[in-house]
Amino acid sequence: MGKKLSKRLQAIADLVPAGAFLADVGSDHAYLPISLIESGKISYAQAIDNKMGPFLRMKANVAEARLESHIVLSRSDGISDIRPDVNCIVLAGIGGLLACDLLEAHPEKLPSVSHIIVDPHRDLRSVRARVSALGYEIEDEKMVREDKIYYSIIRFKKCAVPPRYSDEQLNFGPILIQRMEPIFLDFIEEQRKKVNALLNGPALPKERRAYVLRVYRSCSKLLKQGGRL
Ligand SMILES: C[S@@+](CC[C@H](N)C(=O)[O-])C[C@H]1O[C@@H](n2cnc3c(N)ncnc32)[C@H](O)[C@@H]1O
């Protein structure tokens, strides 16, 4: 049996559609595909990493789980080598901006990819905007806190015309805003404190200050909606 997934990886696993052919980019230890296959949620996956150490680690773990006929291993960069039957890509633990760079580098690999899942803890606005611009909408979002870090796990679904998200939706997540769960409100409280410190710190350039002020007001509005202010 594979290792028990961390809270963050389990939340990602929960968002993988049942029956998907998964490409786990930056797989490192391959815990995610191993767990998903052992649980019966999916049958096949490709585990991808561009470095030798992690590649050998994935290989050893997949062999130990006796899943060589279910998990294809690939030592390659990003999505450059994804198999044509992959329909769901997870890019986790590699940073949101790198995840976007890797997707944008190979748009020709995306037509058959119905779902993309990312787990950024920063640059959330850019990630939501850049992945949507590739022809996807935000279908589901989950927030988890691990090692004192809030991760927004976002599942994008291919769509004909990507929605135009508001500033607030790009910053904080359309689904997270709708659900207003306690963990989301905790996160907004933390963001509001950070933004407040910026506003009260050394003078910011005019445009930056205006943007930070908008984010502060947005946090206050959300906290009021959630009954925390
Ligand atoms: C911190 S681990 C994340 C492991 C796992 N995905 C998780 O979320 O726990 C990041 C992995 O991404 C790999 N990586 C970084 N850049 C990559 C790239 N351009 N293509 C493929 N893998 C990459 C690293 O070698 C490393 O093994």
Q: What would your notes on this structure say?
A:
With 229 residues, this protein is of the alpha/beta class. It folds into 2 domains: 157 residues, Vaccinia Virus protein VP39 (Rossmann fold), CATH 3.40.50; 44 residues. The protein is 43% helix and 20% strand. The chain has 9 helices and 7 strands, in the order αβαβαββαβαββαααα. It has a 7-stranded mixed beta sheet with strand order 3-2-1-4-5-7-6, with helices on both faces. Helix 4 packs parallel to helix 5.
Secondary structure layout:
Blueprint: H1 7-15, E1 21-25, H2 31-38, E2 44-49, H3 52-64, E3 71-75, E4 88-91, H4 96-104, E5 115-118, H5 124-132, E6 136-146, E7 149-158, H6 167-172, H7 174-179, H8 182-200, H9 206-225
Parallel strand pairs: 1-2, 1-4, 2-3, 4-5
Antiparallel strand pairs: 5-7, 6-7
Helix pairs in contact: 1-2, 4-5, 8-9
The protein binds S-adenosylmethionine (SAM).
CATH architecture of the largest domain: 3-Layer(aba) Sandwich
Note the beta-strand portion.
15-25%
- Bound ligand species: S-adenosylmethionine
CATH homologous superfamily identity of the largest domain: Vaccinia Virus protein VP39
Strand line-up across the major sheet: 3-2-1-4-5-7-6
Q: Could you tell me the mean pLDDT?
A: 97
Count of the domains: 2
Order of helices and strands: HEHEHEEHEHEEHHHH
Strand segment count? 7
Shape type? elongated
CATH class of the largest domain reads: Alpha Beta
Rg to the nearest angstrom?
19 Å
Q: What structural category characterises the helix and strand content?
A: alpha/beta
Q: Helical content, roughly?
A: 40-55%
Count of alpha and pi helical runs = 9
